[in-house]
Structures are given as C-alpha cells and as structure tokens.
Amino acid sequence: MGVIELGWWQLALAALLVVALAGCTMAARLGVGRSLLIAAARTAIQLTLVGLVLEALFASVRFHWVALMALGMLLIAGREVVARQTRRLTGGWGFGIGTLAMFLSSFSVAVLSLTVIIGPEPWYRPQYAIPLLGMMLGNTMTGVALALDRLTDGAWRQRAVIENRLMLGQPWHEAIGDLRREAMRSGLMPVINAMAAAGVVSLPGMMTGQILAGTAPALAVKYQILIMFAITLGSGFGTLAAVALASRRLFDGRERLRLERLSAPRQ
Fold first, then answer.
1. What is the chain's pLDDT, residue by residue, as a tens digit (267 residues)?
2. TM segments (predicted)?
C-alpha cells in the first residue's frame, strides 16, 4: 500500500483551521492566540527547512555531513536545556553540563543501536541515524532540563537544610542526597510515563508514521519498542550524569555550598 500524496492546498486547509483556532482563543481573551500563530509558523518553516536538509543528506550519505548535523542538533538541545532552568549554573556550566550529559548518553546509545542492533550500511546512513538521534536528543533534553531545574532550584530553597547537614559533618553528596534523588526521579518520569502509556493510551509517533507510510504493523511495533528502550537509556543515563556533575559543581573543594554559582531566577 503506497502513501497518499498530500497537496499544498490540503496543508493550507489545515493551516486555516489553526488560524480559526487562534481566532477563537483571541475572542475568548485567552492571551495565547499570537503565540499559537507564531508556533504554527515556526513549525511549518522549521520542518520545511529540515526536510530540504534531509533530502540532501539522504542523497549524499557522507559521514561528515551527518556528523555536522548531529553536532548542530546537540548544541541546540544544550541551549534549550539552559533556557528551561529557573536558576542556571553560571559561567557556561549549565550549558556545558547539559550538553556533555546528552552527548555521552544519546550519542553512545545511538551509535550502539546503529552498529550492533539495526545494522544499516553504512552504519551512519542518515535515514536511520538522524531520526534515531533526533528522538533520543529530544527526550533526553526534556529529562536533563527537568532534573537540573529541580536540582538547582531545590538547592536554593533548601540551602539552610543542606548547610545544617554539612555542619553536622555529612559529606556534600549526603547533604544533598535527597535532592539529587528527587531531581533524578523528575528527569526519569517522562520516559516512564511514555512507556507505561505506549499502545494503551497513545500510539507513539514513529510507529504511527511507519504505519501511515505502509510498513507492516508488526515491524513498526518492533522498531517502536527498540526506539522506546533506546530513548529510555539515553534519557536515563543523561539525567544521572547531569545531576551528578551539576550537584558536584554546587560545592567547592572544601565541601562548602556555593550558591553564588547559580544565576538569579528568570522572570
């Protein structure tokens, strides 16, 4: 079964419905109509541009172009991690820790999945590498951002408790241990919820797309299970690494809490 071709008029009809929705929100004075239109425009522009880039990548199948696009995706994800934190680590540490954690987890799991499990030829074939890495980075970014935000904001709010524990002789990792565990749980919760709801509450996007493209449902399910497990590994290890590095940065060599290393809260 082939894919049903979509024409521009059909996309325009869908866009008109979004405009109608924005009009309804404006009439109801919800204050989100402008944001809705801007987000819809960004979606159309960004996806159109990435479609052109992917067509060029699929045609060339060159490692350096795939690596360059992966690097760009990683840097943008690192920027988004910093933007979502109320109190970020200063001096580029917030960006550096988030980016490093995502690189170590997502790239490692993606390369392992491509070379050992899926096995395309060549292993960096963009048809497989870019969508896999994109899904992993997107989910890992969410987990790392949630965990770092919970850690830094919690350290600021519970500074008296942490300092009291330090004065009682606890090492830094025990003084902030409860907060570290809470931050890690926050980062892992989205992937746990996604796996728990997969198939019974929602059909994941990749599986839905493959079925719409004509892939047999049984094969689409196998790919989706692999992707869900890979996303969980990337997000989980990324969250653990980010919390470990960021919590250590909150203390100096003499195990003193250094909250001046956090920026002022974002308005």
1. 567 788 888 999 999 999 999 999 999 988 889 999 999 999 999 999 989 998 998 888 899 999 999 999 999 999 989 888 888 898 889 999 999 999 999 999 999 999 999 999 899 999 999 989 998 999 999 999 999 999 999 999 999 999 999 999 999 999 999 999 999 999 999 999 989 888 877 777 778 888 888 888 888 889 889 999 999 999 999 999 999 999 999 999 888 999 998 888 766
2. 6-24, 36-57, 63-82, 94-118, 130-148, 191-213, 225-246
For helices 33-60 and 63-83, what crossing angle results, to 10°?
160
Q: Which residue in this structure is represented by tokens 């960006």? A: 95
Number of H helices, E strands in the chain: 11, 0
Picking from 136, 242, 239, 154, the residue whose alpha carbon sits closest to that of residue 188 is 239
Q: Which residues, other chains included, contact 75 with Cβ-Cβ below 8 Å and sequence gap of 6+?
A: 99
Both tokens of residue 231? 């996303």
The count of other CB atoms within 10 Å of the CB of residue 243 is: 26
Other C-beta atoms lying within 10 Å of the C-beta of residue 15: 14
CB 86 within 8 A of CB 98: no
Strand partners, 251: 257
CA distance 112 to 195: 21
pTM for the full model?
A: 0.85
